[in-house]
Design brief:
The strands form 6 sheets. An 8-stranded mixed sheet has the order 12-11-8-13-16-17-19-20, with helices on both faces. It folds into 2 domains: 174 residues, Rossmann fold; 210 residues, Rossmann fold (3-Layer(aba) Sandwich), CATH 3.40.50. The chain starts with 5 loop residues before the first strand and ends with a helix. The chain is built from 14 helices and 21 strands. The longest helix is centred in the last third of the chain and has 16 residues. With 398 residues, it is α/β, with parallel strands linked by helices. Bound molecules: cytidine-5'-triphosphate (CTP). Cytidine-5'-triphosphate binds next to helix 12 and strand 16.
């Protein structure tokens, strides 16, 4: 997704610097090239050799390294990239950027560039919330600097709150969003995927056999066409796609909350196999065997229907909503009725009878149902189905 693109990666001096090494790996896996630049402080956390080995490129560290200046001046270095990424962007580095300092190679490159800049801040929560830092963040935003994160969570210093650097995968997603070309560039699409799990008690849960493979392939294909994808997934067995923002949930209610928090979106693809029911009241303690040998009665209640809820939104409904219909009998008839009942625009129907091997398998045979009727696609790999669907979505949104 990043073939032919070059990222100049400025690694700042913070404990999150080690995650920048993973970011180099991810960018290269997507076909992009990385030129690493380490600040002096960064060298205390990661070695230039590790950055260079992972990037398979020369690493730049010093403004006054004359050999580098002879080979490539800092002006040229800063402009030969398609995007400058600062990760981790420390409070100090952002202050330098906001103040226009140029007293080392990293800050000089950032001053000299006319290429877009993306920062991934990382610092202690108090530093992040400090008014001086917040002022600098606002100044940088005003200057058109893009930002990903910081996340909220446990910090290396033992505190909790906003300040943790965004995960490398989320930084990659932000990079792809800026650089990937394609018909869906500038569009935001949310995809739900995987099963949901509903607790019975602290150790047991209701689940289903969804692997998340089809939803993952769709998210990947949409990102491949340039979309910014938010991928909301239950506990799937396949790993999430690389270049998208991933939100992990467990229950149907959590998935609905995450979907609502993710809107607005241009399109929403509901590929998750959401559990229809949950326990009316999940037990706080482990349910013990009854001495009489009588099994416990599990009282269930219906989960919210995420697809129907979002399809029926009066305000903020995505322009295109695609649902899935997993059926074992009368596939097209049931799926056509489901499209009407749920109020979505398209339904991707598939036969999940065990003999088809589709649930948990690598292939799928789907029928796309819209207001005009049903279009059955030949059986293909889930990746191929995903690419065809992504192209259809791109056509519909164009
Ligand atoms: N879906 C959802 N929320 C639910 C149940 C389903 O968002 N609580 C979505 C799924 O992601 C899928 C579509 O609805 O896109 C259809 O799912 P399916 O399981 O086939 O349908 P059900 O609503 O469960 O209907 P039925 O059990 O009658 O087949």
């Amino acid at each position: 997704m990043l073939a032919g693109k070059r990222i100049l990666l400025v690694i700042g001096g913070g404990i999150a610097a080690f995650k920048a090494l993973e970011l180099i790996r991810l960018i290269r896996k997507e076909g992009g090239a990385v030129t690493p630049v380490l600040t002096n402080a960064a060298k205390e956390f990661v070695t230039p050799l590790s950055a260079s080995a992972l990037a398979a490129e020369k690493v730049y560290t010093d403004l006054f390294d004359l050999t580098d200046e002879a080979e490539m001046g800092h002006i040229e270095l800063s402009r030969s990239a398609d995007l400058l990424v600062v990760a981790p962007a420390t409070a100090d580095l952002m202050a330098k950027m906001a103040g226009g300092h140029a007293d080392d190679l990293a800050s000089t490159l950032l001053m000299a560039t006319d290429t877009p800049v993306l920062v991934a801040p990382a610092m202690n929560v108090r530093m992040w919330l400090n008014p001086a830092n917040q002022r600098n963040v606002a100044l940088l935003e005003g200057d058109g600097v893009h930002r990903v994160g910081p996340d909220e969570g446990d910090m290396a210093c033992g505190e909790y709150g906003p300040g943790r650097m965004a995960e490398p995968q989320a930084i990659l997603a932000a990079i792809v969003e800026r650089l990937a070309d394609g018909p869906l560039k500038g569009r935001h699409i949310l995809v739900t995927s995987g099963p949901t799990t509903e607790p019975i008690d602290p150790v047991r849960y209701i689940a289903n056999r969804s692997s998340g493979a089809q939803g993952t392939a769709i998210a990947q294909a949409l990102a491949g066409l340039g979309a910014r994808v938010t991928f909301i997934t239950g506990p799937a067995t396949v790993p999430p796609p690389q270049s998208v923002t991933v939100i992990k949930v467990e229950t149907a209610q959590e998935m609905l909350d995450a979907v609502r928090a993710t809107l607005p979106a241009d399109a929403a693809i509901f590929a998750a196999a959401v559990a229809d029911w949950r326990m009316a009241t999940a037990s706080g303690g482990k349910i013990k065997k009854d001495k009489s040998g009588k099994p416990p009665a599990l009282e269930l209640t219906e989960n919210p229907d995420i697809l129907a809820t979002i399809s029926k939104l009066k305000k903020g409904r995505p322009r295109l909503i695609v649902g899935f219909a997993a059926e074992t009998d009368d596939v097209i008839k049931n799926a056509t009725a489901k499209r009407k009942r749920k109020g979505c625009d398209w339904i991707v129907a598939n036969d999940v009878s065990p003999e088809t091997g589709i649930m948990g398998g690598s292939e799928n045979a789907v029928t796309l149902i819209d207001a005009d009727g049903a279009d059955s696609w030949p059986r293909a790999t889930k990746d191929q189905v995903a690419r065809r669907l992504a192209q259809r979505i791109a056509d519909a949104l164009s």
